[in-house]
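Q: Trace token order:
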Amino acid sequence: MKLKVITVIVNYNKPYDVIHGVKKVYQGSILPEKILVIDNASTDNSIEILENHLSGKIDLIKNSENKGGSGGFSTGIKIAMNDNPDYIWLMDDDAYPHQEYLEYALKTFSQFPKAGIVGAQLLDINNPEIIVELGANINWNDVSTTPIKRREKKLTKNIIVMVDYVPACCMIISKKIISQIGLFEKKFFIHWDDMEYGYRANQNNFQVVVNSQAIAYHKQFDKPALPLVRYYDIRNSYFFYLKKANNLGMKIHIFWQILYKFIQSPFIANPFDFIIYKNAVLDMFQNKMGKLVETPSWEIQIANFDCIVLSHHLALHEKLFLAKKITMLDKDKLKLIILFDTKTELEELKNYCSICLTNSIWNYIKIMTLGFKQNILLLSPDYYTALDFLPLTKAHYDGNFLLKKPVNIRVLWDFIKYYIRKQSNSKD
């Protein structure tokens, strides 16, 4: 008897990745019954692109708001269950399967009757000979996780691994497990929803299995995360550990780990971690879960200043985006100064800035002089640069809101190390 599988892909502003993923699904040795694409209220023209390229190949569901990965997958699972499938195959918009992934995943379910979730040997999209991970295990002692085989060479032999969880970017869940433990935890919005689901599965006597022959592709997880992603990681992970700890002693241990990392955070290499960590932990303790409500918004924050300076270290597309937003603000005499490196940049930016300045020490002095007369905000990237030593209010724009650049005893040392490395590389 043919098993009924329904694929659920959640999209947020990555329509062409979804098109590529759907194409790979249709190239599989076994095909799903149907593919549901849940659009999470994308802010680009995802809907139009998906309808034009995948008409007749997918069922497109349009969420009225961005519900994150947990809410998006839960929406898809609910709809898929109306067709009474045997299995539901979850995929991120930026992941895609090997042509035999589904075949080997279904064989794994038949081989292990207690399996509720089957993951993938997840390989690096940019280097398919390197493993992203084969699921991971949860470490209660140091409040962390241990990814299996991360950054090791691709496994060519058939290996079966039992784990605490597998990433939702490519995993298959059985109808039986959905009926027993329900949907993803919507409180997480993004990140740790798949970890919590895998843990819940294990606690209900289901196995979470990875078959190395079931292969899928995704980018590496261990690259530096954006501040907003770091926020969700910290908040959701501690919420998980405190909620799932099964005795008072373990809860006290986890609380101590949270406190220790909070005390340590001002002294670590990334000076933003203290702000992110503080906000994430406070929100977790106050049960402010789900999607982060951005108050005050970055537009309101910017409107408190007389002059905005965009660092030359920002990429051109970042300068253009910020410049367009700032010029739309209804504030009289808001001055916008943009530092540029090339004539090409100047041509792109000159219609938006009050003053366009080349990147030079003399223009730094000019900006600093203005700072004595006006309330200036300097916007620069998330790492520290020479501009950040000007006596101005400084912030980093992360794509959602502004993070004030904190004073940190590691900043000057990091800056010195950067120039030492730069000098060393130039000599080589």
Notes: The chain has three domains: 5-218, 227-285, 298-427.
